[in-house]
Amino acid sequence: MSDNPRIYDDWSEVERLAVEIGEKAARDRILSNFEKARAQLDSSDVIKVYDAEYLKHLDALPVWRKVKDVFPVKMTQKPTFSRIEAMPSGARVLDVGCGAGDFVLALAALGHSCAGLDTDANAVREALRRRDENAGLFRVKPEFFVGRMDSFEYEGRADAITLNDVVEHVSVRELRPALAHIRSLLAGGGELLIHTPNGNAQWCLTERNWKVSLWEIVQRLRGIAPPEKSLKQVYYEQTHINVMSFRALRELLSETGFDAEVRYDERDGAPIIREVASSNMMVIARPRKALV
Fold it and tell me: Where in the sequence is the domain holding 117, given as residue range(s)?
């Protein structure tokens, strides 16, 4: 291995490394290299890590509910789904990074006018297949497209655009133009809903402040240690190249013309506790009104 930090994007290589130096040392090396390389990584640099087992893991994520007993909504999608479900029937919704389309199909089955976008043509084909297979459940047929989130075309204006666990998989360099483009597609009063890991959380820490340090002291006094991650967990976490705190994400959103607020998934305790105890967050962003 050269002196330049790099990620390990071949599981067989990781297995050989664990045999050679031991599993704990292998975990530490992968984490160390990833943290050193993280700021230089774009989504294309980790594409090989998204293997069949990773995709199987996504399919197995806990389900919150099934709409019409057909379309599963994951627990991680509950915050954005619940907010859109409360909108008037027929709201125009665009899900960016839709995968095989369950989120879009579930909202469409509840009467919203929905579309999904993904860069993966195979995932979009599967979404279209499932839509056509369940055509009788939709008042307005949902649409699915293959495209990039910084340049896709969308007819009309959306009442809500969602980025469900997408932000952490793209670099700030990729995210900035995408946010600017998304802003141009929102209707007046429309919302961009972002669900993403919380960079201030103790277990996925990418930003330190006094609140995080205080929380770590409290946890140590309570005898609570960070969970030890398996070698496979560490390997797949290399897909999370951009885990941002709300402060950092709010700054980027402000640069691209949005005002933003946050709702942490952890609802118990005082705000200062939720900020560091909640592993995930939903950021609600609205286009900033131009000064007259």
Answer: 55-200+239-287
